[in-house]
Amino acid sequence: VKIFAPSIEQRDVVNHLKGSPTEEKRNVLVESARLARGNIQDLAELKASEFDAVIFPGGFGVAKNLCSWAVDGKNCTVNEHVRSTLQAFHSAKKPIGLCCISPVLAAKVFPGCEVTVGQDKNVDGRFPDAETASAIAELGCKHICKNVNESHVDKANKIVTTCAFMCKAPLHEIFDGIGTMVQEVLKLA
Fold first, then answer.
1. Structural domain containing residue 91
2. Is 165 part of any domain?
3. Are strands 159-162 and 96-99 parallel, antiparallel or unpaired?
4. pLDDT per residue of the chain (189 residues) written in tens, 0 to 9
5. Is the distance from CB of 126 to CB of 152 less than 8 angstroms?
6. In CATH, what number is assigned to the domain containing residue 102?
7. Which pTM was predicted?
8. Contact at 8 Å (CB) between 180 and 162?
């Protein structure tokens, strides 16, 4: 297992204690290195031929830094290294795992694919971003409704997705869903 991130400036830096942006500037690779304890490489160096699969974690950073979904929604652009990485694994028929908001990356890069970000309706207030499913459909992809502890496998494209924090759920349910995504990716590898 190796961890990669693009060497780009973050769109903004958030003080998570206060929940508001700061004036500080950070690099995505440097910040990711802090989280990965330094064991990380620039995404530009990733070679799909050296790996059996790729998994993209989610989080709002994906929607702000790996693409512009946070600002532009379905009209977003995808970072060039993220796009080329996804395309390289897809072309090599190697599995791609995506969780939380990151399934929108596949929706932008692979028209016609199937993904899940949970439900397409805000069921019991648990899916406050349910409109993301509609935007995915507007991109020509199929959104599959799944519970937080489940994942969806698009066998034709070898794309496995789960909603994770797109659902307001207890951590153990989110953990279970991410676990099923990882297990399905490994089965396809």
1. 46-188
2. yes
3. parallel
4. 999 999 999 888 778 788 888 888 888 998 899 889 888 999 999 999 999 999 999 988 999 999 999 999 999 999 999 999 999 999 999 999 999 999 999 999 999 999 999 999 998 999 999 999 999 999 999 999 999 999 999 999 999 999 999 999 999 999 999 999 999 999 999
5. no
6. 3.40.50.880
7. 0.93
8. yes
Q: Flag whether 184 is in a domain.
A: yes
Catalytic-residue membership of 100: yes
Is the residue at 113 inside a domain?
yes
Selecting among 76, 100, 113, 163, the annotated active-site residue is 100
| Bridge partners, 5 (sequence order) | 42
Q: How far apart are CA 176 and CA 131, in angstroms?
A: 24
| Within a domain: 73 | yes
| In contact, 121 and 83? CB cutoff 8 Å | no
How many independent structural domains does the chain possess?
1
